[in-house]
Design a protein that fits this description.
Residues 143-182 are annotated as: Disordered. Helix content is 37%, strand content 4%. The protein has 273 residues and is mainly α. The strands form 3 sheets. A two-stranded antiparallel sheet has the order 1-4. It is flat.
């Protein structure tokens, strides 16, 4: 047995400071008062993502699994770094649930799939570790990246004291339709299922359907959130990670009793129609 070195947790916090412009009114010859300046939005600091360590929670690593385990531990570090970078560059985006929906939630999904692959790698050569799912969820430290509204609600009084009617407000554009997530079918791409593996395969096929349903619900509930890459980063990417892990479990279940099917990874990626 060998011990895998514990990777150093990468935490890259970002902060965005709001700049307030101070205006000084100067009396003109006509003695007209200067127009009031609207209050600037106050954007809080992004904060830092903190995740539970994984390497020190693992049992002794079989030598045959050490390389794969280390590769996935490094991937966990990379995922945290990417999430912190996104946190720092998206301050002020979305609503109050943006960080959870667009960053922390997808990060937990990615970590869960990666941690599952670690457990599977160990389980091929020794007892598979259990109870690691609790290590997937991360939290946000100080700050939070939530944009606060201006103190006066953003309203600016008319310069003429209110004698003119307020400017017509532009009509609010309705959010675009959410669309539907479409994923490759898996059951019809599998070889003959050994009877001893059928229950486990069926359970994971049902899980694939559940994952698609959950992703479609999230897609419908998050219309208008985030930037142009929101759907890919917050929904399709995490869904692909979940599907990849589930499809891998299907292949492993079959491989315990017959030749393990290959080439199924291409079935993990979904699209929005």
């Amino acid at each position: 047995m060998v011990r895998v070195r514990a990777p150093r947790l990468l935490i890259a916090g970002g902060a965005a400071a709001a700049l307030l412009a101070a205006g000084i009114g100067i009396a003109a010859a006509s003695d007209k008062p200067a127009a009031n300046k609207p209050a600037a939005a106050n954007v809080q600091a992004a904060g830092t993502i903190s995740c539970p360590t994984v390497a020190d929670k693992l049992p002794a690593i079989p030598a045959a699994a050490a390389a794969e385990v280390q590769q996935n531990l490094d991937l966990l570090d990379k995922q945290i770094a990417e999430a912190n970078n996104r946190l720092a560059t998206s301050v002020g985006q979305g609503g109050p649930a943006f960080v959870q929906n667009a960053i922390l939630g997808p990060l937990a999904d990615k970590r869960r799939a990666t941690i599952d692959r670690i457990a599977i790698a160990i389980g091929r050569h020794a007892a598979r570790p259990t109870g690691l799912d609790s290590l997937a969820t991360c939290t946000l430290g100080a700050g939070g990246g939530v944009q606060q509204p201006p103190a006066n609600g953003g309203a600016q009084p008319p310069a003429n004291g209110g004698n003119q009617p307020p400017a017509t407000q532009p009509a609010t554009q309705p959010p675009a339709a959410a669309g539907t997530i479409s994923c490759p079918t898996v059951a019809d791409k599998l070889p003959a299922i050994p009877a001893a593996a059928k229950a486990e395969v069926d359970r994971n096929l049902e899980l694939l359907n559940k994952q698609i349903a959950e992703a479609n619900t999230r897609l419908a509930n998050s219309v208008g959130q985030g930037g142009p890459a929101f759907v890919q980063n917050a929904i399709l990417g995490p869904l692909a990670d979940k599907r990849r892990s589930t499809i891998d479990r299907i292949a492993i279940a079959i491989g315990r009793h017959t030749a393990k099917p290959t080439g199924l990874d291409s079935l993990a990626t979904c699209t929005v129609a």
